[in-house]
Amino acid sequence: MRSKPHILLFGVGSIGAIYLLQLQRAGCTVTAVCRSNYDVVKQHGFTLTSVRFGNVTYHPDHIVRSVAECPKDAVYDYVLVTAKCFPGSKPSLADLIRPALIGRPETAIVLAQNGIEIERDVAAEFPENPILSGVIYLPSTQTGPGIIDYPEMLNLLELGTYPANAPATHKAAASKLVDLMNQGGGEAKLHDDIQIARWTKLLVNASWNPICALSMCSDGDFLFTSEPFAFELVWGIMMEIVALAKKVGIPGVDEEAARVRLQTATRRAETGTGRDPSMLQDVKQGRSFEVEAIVGNTVRLARKHEVSMPRLETVYALAKGRYETLARNHSH
Length: 332
What we know:
Elements: E1 6-10, H1 14-25, E2 29-33, H2 38-44, E3 46-50, E4 54-58, E5 62-64, E6 78-81, H3 93-97, E7 108-112, H4 120-125, E8 131-137, E9 141-144, E10 147-150, E11 156-162, H5 168-183, E12 187-190, H6 194-215, H7 219-222, H8 229-248, H9 255-271, H10 278-284, H11 291-304, H12 310-331
Parallel strand pairs: 1-2, 1-6, 2-5, 3-10, 6-7, 7-8, 11-12
Antiparallel strand pairs: 3-4, 8-11, 9-10
GO biological process, one term: pantothenate biosynthetic process
Keywords: NADP, Oxidoreductase, Signal
Enzyme class: oxidoreductase
């Protein structure tokens, strides 16, 4: 890898904008693929209001509307995908990032996205490239084009190869990116098996995200809406995920892990500091949300392994209805 790593950042919303800053602070050259916020970012850059990094304005080194606009001779060490995950969408993610990867088997593809079972399609399209899978804890919001609000210190990227037994060169690419993220002022951790971290986050994502999107409540507020029913719904979904994780052989995703994660929302309920999960933010702003990557993939996997998920299946059907209604409204 060159002394100054080159990163192509695909999907630069709130998470991508913060990673842009971190990577630049770590000495990287970053090309940002900005879609909906391109015009504002090209003219004004990003404006970040942050506890961790302070209040700063900054620009990508290069900015494009699509990967196809990147210079044909550009070689990137990483294509870092922080766009939302929409399995089955057309064009596919693989198609959107392909121009940067043709004849570049050494470029690592980093899927810093929500959900489970999201890596297989990209890995099939780019069998030689290192595939890195990332789990993000970074509570931030893009309140307007290029305007990022990041009110907490939490900034964790958990990273590992896909599959876990990938070649040593792929492991080295993961290790290097962890180093860069830490040098840039975040916190990143390397995992031997990233799927454990991915499923642990699923406990929170598959329960709180669709529930909040459907109820229009923050996580903390929801717990007070119908005691004890609200609590029992969230906990019941978490237990369905624990049962599925056990069936498919994911260690560490157990009742204790669920209890720890539910305590976060319980504390927010008690202090009146509930957070809007990403799906609720998307619904409020009329955007598509990640119902398939997070919930759909989970309930389909459960059916495949004959694990009963009555609560999550119900929430999935309702959330998918809301998703399709939003999509219809967009197309009119």
